[in-house]
């Protein structure tokens, strides 16, 4: 019986890989088609400045997408990532203004973000709440903490030292450090998710938690640490944003979770758990970035932009639902 269970699990990752490759190829084709269409619609689209702006806009959010994708694969979801990004910013910024050096302040902000993940992971794995309700409560609580820390007033951090500002504003041979960090995070976790034996437990847990448990996988430990990872990466993104903008606003990141979840789902991460890739999620983020840039260049109202993004998310979830209905049990 155990051998049959493990045998079934050994086959499924290969089928997910084929489906993931199809989704990724489709996304690349859509992105290229949009780029070609926009090259005729606007002379400003195919410019180095526009592509640099698009890369910068989604590179930091892309760090958060990595954590969200892995969490979706395990069968969870985190609605608090926007609030945690803001929390890392305002806590690190407040500690810096209080006299702590920016590196230590940033490390404290990231560790505090990880602690938030630990608390949410505790309520999910020990208390038994689901990720949706837990992260919804976390979103509200953490946003409240941001307002308490700042008293509702944005923090000006223009006195940050140049070496720290370089993380968000500097470049190496013309390539912004933000993009280098983004590529490094994506490359590391994409490789681990595809190749590391330990991370296969994420797929097994998300696909069939009971079967994974019977196979000897400590599923609660997997869910706990993936929840912590998602919050930690959100904290890293918050510190990068602080360095990039030289400020910390208590309302920053409101609605960010929509873009993050949309990108992961468009890229093939299933809301039912068990499937998804980092590369697919990043392509989903790239698609949203291209759509946003296109709408701006075409002078489409910001109100319509949100509606269009919502429609794209609805279409992606519909495709995910259709694929899950056809997936063999």
From TrEMBL:
Tagged with keyword Transmembrane: yes
Gene Ontology CC annotations of this record: plasma membrane
The keyword Zinc belongs to this UniProt entry's keyword annotation: no
Superkingdom per UniProt: Bacteria
Record's bilayer topology term: Multi-pass membrane protein
Gene Ontology MF terms: transmembrane transporter activity
Transmembrane segments: 51-74, 81-100, 106-129, 136-154, 174-193, 224-242, 278-301
Compartments reported by the entry: Cell membrane
CDD domains with a match to the protein in the record: TM_PBP1_transp_AraH_like (cd06579)
Keywords of this entry: Cell membrane, Membrane, Transmembrane, Transmembrane helix
Name of the protein described by the UniProt record: ABC transporter permease
Species: Phyllobacterium brassicacearum
